[in-house]
Amino acid sequence: MSINHPSFGKLDDDRIIIFDTTLRDGEQSPGFSMNLHEKIRMAEALTELGIDVMEAGFPIASPGDFESVLEIAKSVGQRDDTPVICGLARSGREDILRAADAVRPAKRKRIHSFLSTSPLHMKYKLRMEPDEVLQAVTDSVTLARQHTDDVEWSAEDGTRTEDDFLCRCVEAAIKAGATTINIPDTVGYALPEDMERIFTMVKTRVPGADRIVLSTHNHNDLGLAVANTLAAIKAGVRQVEATINGIGERAGNASLEEAIMAIKTRHDAVPFKNNINTKQILRLSKMLSTITGFDVQPNKAIVGRNAFAHEAGIHQDGVLKHAGTYEIMLPEDVGWAKNSLVLGKHSGRAAFRDRLDQLGYKVGQNQLNDAFRRFKDLADRKKVVFDEDLIALVDDEVMRDHERIRFVSLDLYAGSKRPAKAELELEVDGTVRTATATGNGPVDATFNAIQAIFPHNANLVLFSVGAVTEGTDAQAKTTVRLEENGKMVDGQGADADTIVASARAYIHALNKLLVKRERTEPPQALSA
User: Fold this and answer.
1) Phi and psi at residue 425, to the nearest 5°
2) How far, in Å, are 153, 154, 179, 237 from residue 114 at the CA level?
3) How far, in Å, CA of 528 to CA of 116, rounded?
4) Which of 57, 169, 307, 468 is the 20 to 30 A CA-CA neighbour of 410?
C-alpha cells in the first residue's frame, strides 16, 4: 500500500527516505560541536548530497542551537532542492514551541518529538507511570501538529520497550497525527533479528501503521548499526536515520555512507532507491573531518584512505587484471579519484577552479583568491600536488571564513643551541597584532606567541600531527584540542610547514572556543 506523506506526496513502495542527523545527534558527540558558519556549510553540502530530511538541531538546547536551526531554515530551507528541515523536541510544551519557531521559515518543515518508553527509562529517568507517558505522547504530537503537518514521533529506547506498551504508544502517536514513527535502538542493544521482529510486529498489530512512514535510528555500541538498519528496511521501514562518518553519542550512529553503499551495491538483496548523489560522499566525509577535527580511521568502510587500497601481491595482481576481483564497488562512485595527480606550479587559475569544481567545491571569489595564492605557494614547495592536498588546503581556507582571529605570518628561529623563538602576526577583529615569544621548541614558542597576542585561559589537552599525503614534502595536517571551564573544542590546520599548520590549528580551536563561550550549556542530552 502506497503512503501519502505531507512532505513527499505519494511514496513509491521502493523509496527510502534518507534522514540525516549529523547536525543534531552527531554534533552531540564530545568535541564535535560546530559553530553557526560550520553548520550552514555542512547543511548546504548535505543538501547537495541529496538527503531528504535534515535534522538541523535541538532548538531548546541553547540559544546557539536555536539560531543554527533558524538560520538553516531561512537559508538552506528556502532552496528549490531543499530537504525537510527538522527540529528535535522532547515532549514538553516549551520544547515543541521552540522547535516550531526554529523551523517555521523553511518551505518544508518537521517537528521531531520523542519520549522514553522502556521500563528502565520510565522508572529511573522520567519517573513517570505508563499511563502518564501515553498521555504525554498524545499531547506532544497533538501540539506539534498545530504547527506543521509533518510530525515525527520517536519511542526513545524503543528496542528495550515491552511489546504491548510500544504498540500502544505508537498507536497513540498515529491517532494524534504523527506522520512518521521512529523506533530507535537508542543504546545499540538490538541484533538484526530484533529489528525485523519489532517492525514486523508494529506493522501487523498497530492500526494505521500502513498509512505512515516507519523509521529506524540505530546506535553502534555493538558495531551493528548499519546491519540493524538494513534489517529494518527489509521489515518494511522506509526512512533511514544516519550520520556522515557514523558520528554520534558514544560509539556513534549508523554510518550514512555505509548504509547507502550497501543498498547501492547489494541492490539484489535490498532493492530500494533513494536520492543520494554518492559521488559527493567522500567530499562530505572529509569536510566533516576538517570541521570537527576528527579523522576517520584508515580502514573505515567507504571513506577510509585504505578502503580501496591493495597491498597484498595476490590482491594487486587480481585488481590489475580485473578490478572486480577484489573491489565490490567503484572508487569513483563515492568520490575517490582514479588519478589524484592534477596540478603543478605552472597551472593557472582556470585549471585550479575547474579542479575544485570536479572535487565538488563551490567557493566565493575571495576564498578562491586566497586558496589559489596558497596553492601556488604549495606548488613551489612540493614536487607534485595531489587532490588530497587541494582538499586540505581549500577546507583549511574555507573553514576560517568569519573568524575573529586570523593567521597572517610566522617567522621562526629554532635549533639545538638556544631556545626557539617565534615572531607571529595575527589579525584580531580586523587589526594586525604582533608578538615575539620563546619556548621549548618551535611549537611551544608559537603557541606562547598566540597567548601573548590574545590572552586566554584555555588549556592545551591534545596536539597531533599527520601528513595529508606521503613523502617528506607532504602537507602537515595538525589537530589542537583546547579546554576551558569544561568546554572542549578541536581545531585543525594544514600547511606545507608543520609549525604554520600548528598555528592555524590552534587559532581555529581558539575561534571555536570564542563561539562556544557565547552559548549557554545545553540541558541534559536526550536523544533518540
Assistant:
1) -120, 130
2) 5, 4, 14, 18
3) 9
4) 468
Do both 216 and 352 map to the same domain?
Answer: no
Query: Does pLDDT of 36 surpass 70?
Result: yes
Q: Which amino acid is at 204?
A: T
268-272, 293-297, 428-432, range with the lowest pLDDT: 293-297
Our separate counts of H helices and E strands in the chain read: 16, 18
Note whether 5 and 11 are within 8 A (CB).
yes
Tell me phi and psi for residue 156, to 5 degrees. -60, 140
Residues 261, 167 within the same domain? yes
What is the arrangement of strands in the sheet containing 476-484, beginning at the earlier edge strand? 459-467, 476-484, 487-495
Q: Contact at 8 Å (CB) between 229 and 235?
A: no
The answer to whether residue 478 is domain-embedded is yes
Q: CATH no. for residue 483?
A: 3.30.160.270
Q: Exposed, middle or buried by CB within 10 Å (0-12, 13-18, 19+), for 524?
A: exposed
What SS3 class is residue 65? Answer: helix
Q: What is the mean pLDDT of residues 108-136?
A: 96
- Residue 136 inside a domain? The answer is yes
Q: Are residue 385 and residue 409 in the same domain, yes or no?
A: no
Name the region of 485 (left: φ>0; alpha: ψ -120 to 50; beta: rest). Answer: left
Are 136 and 266 members of one domain? yes
Domain coverage including residue 350? 337-398
Number of domains composing the chain? 3
The neighbouring-strand residues paired with 341 are 386
At 156 the pLDDT is: 97
Give me the sign of the Cα torsion angle 459, 465, 468, 472: positive
Cβ count near 311 (within 10 Å): 7
Instruction: Confirm if 334 and 257 have CB atoms less than 8 A apart.
Output: yes
Q: Could you read off the pLDDT of 178-221 as tens digits, one per residue?
A: 999 999 999 999 999 999 999 999 999 999 999 999 999 999 99
Measured between alpha carbons, how far is 84 from 99 in angstroms, rounded to an integer? 14
Angle, CA 415 vertex, CA 410 and CA 416 arms, to 5°: 155
Q: Per the domain annotation, does 304 fall within a domain?
A: no
> Do 272 and 414 share a domain, yes or no?
no
Q: Are 56 and 73 in contact (CB under 8 A)?
A: yes
d(C-alpha 272, C-alpha 277), whole Å: 15
**SS3 per residue for 140-198:** HHHHHHCCCCCEEEEEECHHHCCHHHHHHHHHHHHHHCCCEEECCECCCCCCHHHHHHH
DSSP state of 123: I
CA 523 to chain centre: 21
Cα 475 to Cα 383: distance, rounded to the nearest angstrom: 12
Q: Is the dihedral of CA 287, 406, 480, 515 positive or negative?
A: negative
